[in-house]
Write a structure and sequence with these properties.
746 residues, alpha+beta, nine-stranded mixed β-sheet, five-stranded antiparallel β-sheet, 24 strands, 29% helix, 15% strand
């Protein structure tokens, strides 16, 4: 008889009632649990728990009963918040759309009232109304399903957080900058917009989807600068949407190499018949479908196709695997704080520069009252300019007359790159217990802040007098600069152990041996350290300005706002900051993706300033596609990297002069020190809560530092011995301690 009751108990357990997927995730987050902790407790894989929370799979016995018990206990501790609808406020946003035979339907929710009643669907027979303001200040949108666990059509939604845009005040773009297009289990095409809004899409083909987007969806974003252009709407197509509209869900190797599907594909033929055009890059992971502009009206829609690797894992983490509503949230936050993505994070970083400083503007009216296009002051203009020969990368047309196998040295080539330097530990450092790594937040963005860069072409000058206010490239001998005695301020000098410091003038930290080309910030630092400089020649840009200031400010604000959403705020006390940074990614993994993307936008955008050939059948000495851009400016990239490296060296010198501590390794924006404790507070010289002026300071603002990782001194000595590399750069591995191969120096 007991076995009979056991079987009945098992049958009941197999149907244990579970909350909706989003509620499962909310409860886990509320208790501060990670996916790994829950997976370990239930003896399942991390991916399994993630699937339960995403609504992709449902738990089965025997784990289901235990999972239900866990969620029940958590629900007692953290009841679901109630957020009633304001009097007179509907839970749907009515719209008026007329161009398609089937009306577009809008779905959204202001607050969860019940699983069935919280979602309201309204036919489009009323005057358009803005998205409810209540959507702007509550928790993130929930991932919910209908009674079938395989359906992704939302039935109820929580209102969205402050971090999620819900469209601006511009009625043209009231549904936000973008939508993720998906198909639910019933075959209905849905457009998941920002702010939890879901539109039913009537379009049956890709051309009609483009038409619907431009005429009815009210997607897009206002321009970032007065002379600029509004952002085109972005559609993100899931695999289900690709199937619906006749596109492959993945690219073949040949298509992936070409970056597009063949021009003869039937969907492209559909677009051509409907008189839509594609840009030169064709229909690939990031595609633009347009008709030539008529007057000021633009007709352009951009596509993002994650399954074609549009959202590179290196920069967008697992964004491509997110459910549609969550992906809309991630991309929407990025779009509202940075800009609507225009391609990879690198492309977007470059496009942001142009959006903030458009190349042209409308002139004042002439005698007939007409306005004309003219150069926009402070921009790079619309036409490319030649770089200086020393700034040109190998293979550039300016160098086509060099012998084929000629290798340019520092006297011929500007080589401003990030640090990659390390040294053996001293005996005294080996007696300490730990190696502690610190990392500069948004280091290259901070390097761009306030930097004066050239706006036009360079002018060649022989035997110039150095002027730190003029951007350019200078041929000068800095080998006489001795780091054993440097000036720290007016009439204040310090004696240092130069053998324990990297040179500020070379990426490898080696002391220069003779004349070499440097960007202005590097030469200015030699003067700052107390040494005279006598340039031999220079390429100077007399037309200049702080071109990157707005770019820096927008990316800084995006970074700080998103980190604040993750519980890390500016001006926190050092200990509080370190505690807040511990596990910040687990508080909201989706917003952590946005942080990664913002940082990738900084580095990628700067890298695009000196973009190299990408296939294209290019041969050395021939021009490549990027050279046709006004934003191909290797001198600006060099100046930012130069200033970033100098900023870091200045802090290292101040720290050494004050504490007698020297770095063991430096890599790009990270530094490793030997210390007795495991925390940066065990070696950073804080006094009464205040850091050393001009030195390292803990904090989240760009230019301040965070804890990168801690390993033991024994670990450092062991890996160097294992690879027989006494100068192995430990900064590369300090975060998790894993060393998989000998340091290549790249």
């Amino acid at each position: 008889m007991s076995e009979l009751f056991d079987r009945i108990d098992a049958l009941v357990a197999s149907r244990s009632v579970l909350p909706p997927p989003a509620e499962r995730k909310r409860l886990r987050h509320a208790h501060g649990l990670t996916l790994d902790e829950v997976a370990l407790a239930l003896d399942v894989r991390r991916a399994t728990v993630s699937g339960w929370e995403a609504g992709k799979t449902e738990p089965r016995p025997p784990e289901r009963d235990a999972y239900a018990w866990l969620l029940g206990k958590l629900a007692e501790l953290y009841p679901a918040p109630t957020n009633p609808v304001a009097p007179g406020q509907d839970t749907a946003v009515p719209e008026t759309f007329t161009s398609e035979p089937a009306p577009t339907r809008v779905r959204t929710a202001a607050a969860p009232v019940s699983e069935a009643a919280a979602m309201t669907t309204t036919d489009n027979t009323q005057t358009p109304a803005p998205v409810a303001p209540a959507l702007a200040a509550a928790p993130r949108p929930a991932r919910t399903t209908r009674s079938s666990s395989t359906s992704r059509r939302p039935v109820a939604r929580k209102s969205t957080p402050a971090a999620t845009p819900t469209g601006g005040t511009d009625p043209r773009f009231e549904n936000g900058p973008l939508a993720v297009v998906d198909v639910d289990a019933d075959g209905q095409v849905l457009a998941y917009c920002t702010g939890g809004l879901v539109l039913e899409v009537p379009a049956k083909s890709l051309p009609s989807l483009v038409e619907w987007t431009l005429k009815e969806a009210r997607l897009g974003a206002p321009k970032l600068s007065g002379p600029g252009k509004d952002a085109d709407p972005l559609l993100v197509l899931t695999e289900a949407a690709l199937k619906r509209y006749g596109l492959p869900t993945t690219l073949t190797d040949e298509e992936r190499h070409a970056g597009r599907i063949p021009e003869g594909h039937r969907v492209i033929r559909q677009l051509v018949r409907a008189e839509w055009k594609l840009t030169k890059r064709g229909l690939g992971p990031w595609a633009r479908i347009y008709r030539p502009a008529t007057g000021s009206e633009r007709a352009c829609v951009q596509l993002c196709i994650p399954s074609w690797n549009a959202l590179d894992f290196r920069h967008w983490s697992e964004a491509a695997q997110l459910p549609p509503a969550d992906l809309a949230r991630v991309l929407g936050v990025y779009a509202s704080r940075v800009m609507t993505p225009r391609g990879s994070t690198a492309v977007t970083g470059l496009e942001l520069m142009t959006a903030l400083h458009p190349p042209t503007r409308a002139s004042e009216p002439d005698a007939t009252g007409k306005r004309h296009s003219e150069h926009n002051p402070g921009s790079l203009g619309k036409d490319p300019v030649d770089c200086a020969p020393c700034e040109a990368p190998d293979g550039h047309p300016l160098l086509k007359n060099l012998p084929r196998f000629h290798v340019r040295g520092p006297g011929e080539k500007l080589f401003e790159e990030a640090y990659d330097w390390a040294r053996p530990m001293t005996d005294a450092e080996c007696t300490l217990r730990h190696l502690v790594g610190i990392d500069v937040n948004m280091a290259f963005a901070a390097g761009a802040n306030g930097l004066v860069v050239g706006l036009g072409a360079p002018r060649h000058v022989k035997a110039p007098v150095f002027d730190a206010k003029l951007p350019g490239s200078w041929l000068v001998d800095l080998s006489h600069v001795d780091l054993s005695r440097v000036r720290l301020g007016k009439d204040k000098w310090a004696d240092l152990d130069a053998s324990l410091l990297p040179s500020p003038f070379t990426p490898k930290g080696e002391r220069p041996e003779g004349p070499a080309w440097y960007a202005t910030p590097t030469v200015a630092y030699a003067v700052e350290l107390g040494y005279d400089v006598t340039p031999i020649e220079a390429y100077i840009r007399y037309e200049n300005g702080r071109y990157l200031d707005g770019w820096y400010q927008r990316l800084r604000d995006a970074f700080l706002a998103t980190m604040a959403d993750l519980g890390v705020h500016a001006d926190m006390e050092p200990a509080d900051f370190l505690a807040a940074m511990d596990g910040y990614r687990d508080r909201d993994p989706d917003l952590a993706i946005v942080v990664d993307a913002v940082k990738a936008t900084v580095k990628g955008g700067l890298g695009k300033l000196r973009e190299r050939p990408r296939g294209e059948g290019w041969k050395p000495g021939q021009p490549w596609r990027a050279l046709a851009r006004a934003t191909w400016r290797p001198d600006i990239r060099a100046a930012v990297i130069s200033r970033t490296r100098i900023n870091l060296h200045r802090k290292i010198v101040k720290h050494a002069a004050f504490t007698g501590q020297y770095p063991v390794a430096v890599l790009s924006d990270g530094v490793v020190y030997a210390a007795d404790g495991t925390s940066p507070l065990d070696f950073l010289p804080y006094r009464d809560g205040k850091p050393l002026p001009g030195g390292f300071k803990l904090g989240i603002n760009p230019g301040l530092v965070k804890h990168e990782g801690t390993q033991s001194v024994l670990w450092g000595e062991e890996v160097r011995e294992r690879f027989n590399a006494p100068e192995l750069n430990l900064a590369r591995y300090i975060k998790d301690g894993r060393v998989t191969d000998k340091d290549s120096g790249e």
